Amino acid sequence: MAAPPRRIPVSSSPRRPAVQARGLSKVYGSGDVAVHALRGVDVAFTAGEFTAIMGPSGSGKSTLMHLLAGLDAATGGQVVLGDTELTALGDTELTLLRRERVGFVFQSFNLLPMFTALQNITLPCELAGTAPDQGWLDTLIDTLGLRDRLTHRPSELSGGQQQRVAIARALITRPDVVFADEPTGNLDSRSGAEVLSFLRTSVRELGQTIVMVTHDPVAASYADSVVLLADGRIAGSIDNPTPESVLAGLDALRTVNA
Ligand SMILES: Nc1ncnc2c1ncn2[C@@H]1O[C@H](COP(=O)(O)OP(=O)(O)OP(=O)(O)O)[C@@H](O)[C@H]1O
């Protein structure tokens, strides 16, 4: 079967938003117990960039990521992925879109234990009934340093290696955006640094787009920019973040909310 067509390189259209929220709101529950998790969020995540979302616990980070990824429905506003409005899609279309145009990396790796590393990486293609693009597969395997681990099962891999397999799996379909939820949360600092370097490499060298939720200012410093959330609203952003500038940004939020 022919390989799926490659997407147009991101660099051909600089500063194009890969995914954006417009007036996005999310209310859990109703009446007295209603929780306003997002209160009219306007934010755009640029294609070909690595963006971290940070903010205090309960500020709405996970809710925003789930809505951007089409995993949950908004109460109001819009999510636009490329030129597709997610908020206008039905369940079946959303399922297909998530499979083909969105990648996920989770804190807990979420690999299938009975499959080899290679089978885990190519799983999204299997599910879509397409053959992996061999050139892209080779690029991912070599970039992520997995060539000599392909026949191993997850239990035979270190945490860092498992997360690299999960990154390759997230990237195999060349999705519009990869959403990473605390991807280094279960890793020691050395493996975490390695995984973050690979995420940055997949943006800088492979033209991918990554949006990562993290609590860790050091992890956020690997991103091109940081979006700060507080109380369900965008509270600021930091370009070219360092651990120090991120900490200062988070401290400023606490002061404002104190
Ligand atoms: N399914 C749900 N039902 C009810 N309330 C929810 C639900 N999910 C989240 N919330 C509430 O919405 C608000 C935002 O939660 P969210 O998980 O998005 O925050 P967060 O910034 O990711 O937090 P954390 O950093 O602790 O993971 C919180 O007040 C939370 O309790």
Describe the fold and architecture.
The chain contains 8 helices and 10 strands. With 258 residues, the protein is an alpha/beta fold. It has one domain (47-60, 90-257): Rossmann fold (3-Layer(aba) Sandwich). It has a 6-stranded mixed beta sheet with strand order 6-7-8-3-9-10, with helices on both faces. β7, α6 (189-204) and β8 form a beta-alpha-beta unit. It is globular, with a radius of gyration of 18 Å. It binds adenosine-5'-triphosphate. Residues 19-256 form the ABC transporter domain. It holds the Pfam family ABC_tran.
Query: What percent of the residues sit in helical stretches (DSSP H or I)?
Result: 25-40%
Shape-level CATH architecture: 3-Layer(aba) Sandwich
Q: Class in CATH?
A: Alpha Beta
What small-molecule ligands were found? adenosine-5'-triphosphate
Count, helices = 8
Q: Which fold name fills CATH's third level, the topology?
A: Rossmann fold
Q: Assign an overall shape.
A: globular
Q: What is the number of beta strands?
A: 10
Give helix and strand order, one letter per element, not per position: EEEHEEHEHHHEHEHEEH
Quickly count the domains.
1
Q: What structural category do the secondary elements indicate?
A: alpha/beta
Distance between the termini: 59 Å
- The whole-angstrom Rg is 18 Å
For the residues shown, what is the average pLDDT?
Answer: 92
Q: β content, as a range?
A: 15-25%
GO molecular function: ATP binding
Pfam family, one: ABC_tran
Protein name: ABC transporter ATP-binding protein
Keywords: ATP-binding, Nucleotide-binding, Transport
Summarize it:
The protein is of the alpha/beta class and 258 residues long.
